[in-house]
Amino acid sequence: MLFRSKHTMTDYVALVEASTDELEQLCVSDDGWEHPKEKKGVKIHMRSVEGTAIVMLRGVTTIPNTAEEVLAATEDLSKRKEWDELFIEGSVVEQIDADHQVLQFKFKAPSRMVYPRDFVMSRGIRRKEDGTIISNHIACEHPKAGEVKGYVRGQLRASGYHIKPNDGGGCTVTYVVQVDPKGWIPTMVVNTVAVKQPLEIGRAHV
């Protein structure tokens, strides 16, 4: 859902909260996920989504940090380039409350023949009683985040982290992502690049 008319901060919160339960199920259930493989300590799964040729990816790994430390690493935009090789820069467009904000990220293109991409998203954090943290992102529009010259505005169909503390220490991190980069990029290239994205979570720790 993208806002195309007047919207309020409540709208941004409602947008991301409406899809958080779905993100959690994508993270914790194996239903519909295929082609499991493991690379660099990250278990990678993919699934087809009705109505699009762009696959959804899921990565699962164990990180020797607390859930809050891993969340902090994903939130530190100044250091994200250290573990996300395609990330250029990011900014907080609007801080709604302690757990909700609107973000704008810029990413490198997979080829010099196409423009880099930028994304605007509503982000929400949910903490559960067992210490699990869910960080959800969903595409939106915002009046302070217009189109950027030299970039193509992509769309996040699904994106988020499920960070669950382990009894013996550390935590299990699950990252789900499905990105429509828009513009002209062959679907085969989109899916090839997408497979690399779950690998980034193995580096997202302090």
Walk me through this protein's architecture:
With 206 residues, this protein is of the alpha+beta class. It is 19% helix and 42% strand. Strands 1, 2, 3, 4, 5, 6, 7, 8, 9 and 10 form a 10-stranded mixed sheet that branches. A hairpin with a 5-residue loop joins strand 6 and strand 7. The longest helix is centred in the first third of the chain and has 20 residues. The termini are far apart.
Q: What integer value in Å does the Rg equal?
A: 16 Å
Q: Span between N and C termini?
A: 34 Å
Element pattern in H and E? HEEEHEEEEEEEH
Note the beta-strand portion: 35-45%
Number of strands: 10
Class from secondary-structure proportions? alpha+beta
**Biggest sheet statistics:** 10 strands, mixed
Overall 3D form: globular
Name its key features:
single chain, 206 residues, alpha+beta, 10-stranded mixed sheet, 3 helices, disordered N terminus
